[in-house]
Amino acid sequence: MIRTLLAEDMHLVRGAIVALLAYEEDIEIVAEVDRGDRILHVAQMVRPDVAVLDVALPGKDGLEAAGELHDKLPECGVLILTGVGTPGLLKRALDVHVRGFMAKDAPPGRLGDAIRRVAAGERVIDSELAIAAMSPPDAPLTERELDVIGAAAEGATVSEIAASLFLAEGTVRNYLHRSTAKLGARSRIDAIRIARESGWI
After folding, report:
1. Distance between CA atoms of 81 and 156, rounded to whole angstroms?
2. For residues 128 and 107, is the Cβ–Cβ distance under 8 A?
3. Tens-digit pLDDT profile for residues 12-30
4. Which of 100, 107, 137, 189 has the fewest CB atoms within 10 Å distance of its CB?
5. Count of CB atoms within 10 A of residue 155's CB?
6. What mean pLDDT comes out for the span 87-116?
7. Which helix (DSSP H) or strand (DSSP E) does residue 77 occupy?
8. Closest by alpha carbon to 105, among 78, 82, 75, 136?
């Protein structure tokens, strides 16, 4: 049996996945969690062969949890489920040694096959997600705005960005404010996340 942990915060979706996998004779759901910050603790107790993680979870996102699983339970293969494929998400997934990256709207039968392949040590990347990730949308930000938000993403302060790009601090603040507005982001941190996931920085 392939011992499988499932992390999904939407109860209906989680129930549907559990019901779907119940038809797979060689796959057993040994744990269900609805928060990313519970994944490692539960996985250390049940020792799954595969962890199927939604990318967007409360408490901690699926990719951060995947990195923790790789560090603490490297024998557990991780399959990420996502609604969108962006270059940033795919790169982050590969950086934390995720073995599977799959669209939530994939045909139902594909999930069991993906779990088996991940358990066998293979890498499984949904072809449509890979194509979407290789064709990032054009950035709505100017080159200078990307320079500024990229520096902010590295943890630089406004004064440090101003000094490194030979700009006034007020200009840097304006660039950051405009970038946040253009991306429809809630905050500077959200703007950095959007730019990273879109592969612009």
Report:
1. 32
2. no
3. 999 999 999 999 999 999 9
4. 107
5. 7
6. 86
7. strand 77-82
8. 82
